[in-house]
Amino acid sequence: MWAIAFACAVSFMGIGLVDPILPAISRELGATPSETMLLFTSYLFITGIAMFFTSWVSSRIGVKRTLIAGLVLVVVFAALAGAAGSVDAIIGFRAGWGLGNALFISTALAAIVGAAAGGARQAVVLYEAALGIGLATGPLIGGALGSVSWRGPFFGTAALMAIALIAILALLRSPKPAAGATVEPPAKVSLLASFRALRNPALLALSLVALCYNFGFFMLLAYSPYPLEAAAHASGREFGASELGLVFFGWGLALAITSVLVAPVLTRKLGLRPVLFTMLGGLTVCLVLLGVFVDSLPGLVTVVVVSGLLLGVMNTALTEAVMEATDLPRNVASSTYSGVRFMGGAIAPAIAGPLAAALGAPVPYFVGAAAVVLAIVALLVGGRHLAHIGRPHETATEEAAAITAGDA
């Protein structure tokens, strides 16, 4: 259980790990901001595509083999990215990294609960803690290692994941059946199950909300290092990988705290849909303010960190809504929603650079705000299919799946 939890923390570090080193990669490899932001696009695009098929894979080869396959891919491609000599090569290796991460995070919760000796609730708490640690420390570690070399975060991730892989190989065992009992093999999932799931109106509506929302999310996450660095230089300050890492550590810590501690309280007191509308409205305001304060370092830092508070609540509430909106198997609904959602994250970094170069530094933020407004519209239009959401979860494990899957 502890081995899987450690691997979970390292896996979630990968989301924000490259943020502080994007400007350094641009300088040292002679790449434009548009090219370096494709490190997010390739990672998220392949992760999203793979998410549509991970439930099919794990239902055939089992949870442990799926975990191990994902970890091996992350180790190999993170190391290759660190050794790469061009930004194009890193973009390609990040795609392989995304495939491994999709396989791992899609099965991590089931694995950690199955490995727990002290009950599902204790395992779930550990999983949530690992998620929060990973999201918060990813940018911090990326900044610290990136201040030595931009290659450092990639090699550091490969080394940590290799340790996790060895620990899981040595410690994770299949549960033994009770005396006289037989173990039923897991039900096999169709290869097209995730695509067929989009026929469900409620899931389709929430997936569209997630697509537009995640566009705004990654417009903020992937693009912000460049305005932050430019604003710092304009004010005569040095703002390297370490400083960027600290900013996004604050963002990740805020996101982790609200996703685990604040969001469940708000959704129970106010209901899922009111919380979704409120957080989407707040994120729209944050993106507009980032565009307004694009030349102000204090303004950018403040809004980035505050946005983490909103994003944490939004991730949890949206994924809880997905878990409750349909009677589809939860692994199928979750993988379908995650696949569509990651597509929004993949698109945003790909267009942020060209938009800034052609129309000005504030424009990517304004486009991100417009996308979040579309998410609000999609939530309104799909309202009649979502009137029933908000019921309590049946078990602690199912509740944890809703709380954590969105941040994955």
UniProtKB/TrEMBL annotation:
Cell compartment(s), UniProt: Cell membrane
Keyword check for Membrane: yes
SUPFAM superfamilies: MFS general substrate transporter
Superkingdom of origin: Bacteria
Domain Major facilitator superfamily (MFS) profile: 1-386
Membrane disposition: Multi-pass membrane protein
Main location: membrane
TM regions (residue ranges): 36-56, 68-91, 97-117, 124-148, 154-172, 202-224, 244-263, 275-294, 300-318, 339-359, 365-383
Statement: the UniProt record of this protein carries the keyword Transmembrane helix: yes
Keyword vocabulary terms for this entry: Membrane, Transmembrane, Transmembrane helix
Protein name: MFS transporter
Lineage: Bacteria, Bacillati, Actinomycetota, Actinomycetes, Micrococcales
